[in-house]
Design a protein that fits this description.
Distance between the termini: 18 Å
Number of helices: 5
Number of domains: 1
Oligomer: single chain
Number of strands: 3
Strand order of the largest sheet: 1-2-3
Helix content: 40-55%
Bound molecules: iron/sulfur cluster
Order of helices and strands: HHHHEEEH
Low-confidence stretches: none
Largest sheet: 3 strands, antiparallel
Strand content: 5-15%
């Protein structure tokens, strides 16, 4: 995979990156908007795969990761239905 190219198509291009890191942690009210943005992102799967493989921290592919693993703490605001939508998007084509 070209590690830079997918970022060109990112829905968050031009956004304050802190929205996906410290601000996501600190301002719970912001999380649904960030979640929705990622859910609409055409490179959601590339983003998630990079976050996991590089053992990243912060929001990757719409999922808050800690050391490349799904964070329980920062995913707790989501409903089961919301998670189902996320996993479906991350694991199926199109
Ligand atoms: S999935 Fe979210 S964090 Fe990743 S590139 Fe898309 S909008 Fe940005």
């Amino acid at each position: 995979m070209d590690h830079g190219k997918w970022k060109e198509q990112a829905a968050c291009k031009g956004y304050d990156v802190e929205l996906f890191f410290d601000k996501y942690e600190e301002e719970q009210a912001l999380r649904p908007a960030m979640d929705a943005l990622c859910q609409s992102c055409p490179v959601m799967r590339d983003c998630f795969a990079n976050g996991v493989s590089l053992k990243e921290y912060g929001v990757w592919g719409g999922v808050f990761l800690e050391n490349g693993k799904v964070s329980r703490e920062f995913g707790r605001h989501r409903t089961k239905a919301d998670w189902a939508t996320v996993w479906k998007s991350l694991t199926t084509d199109g």
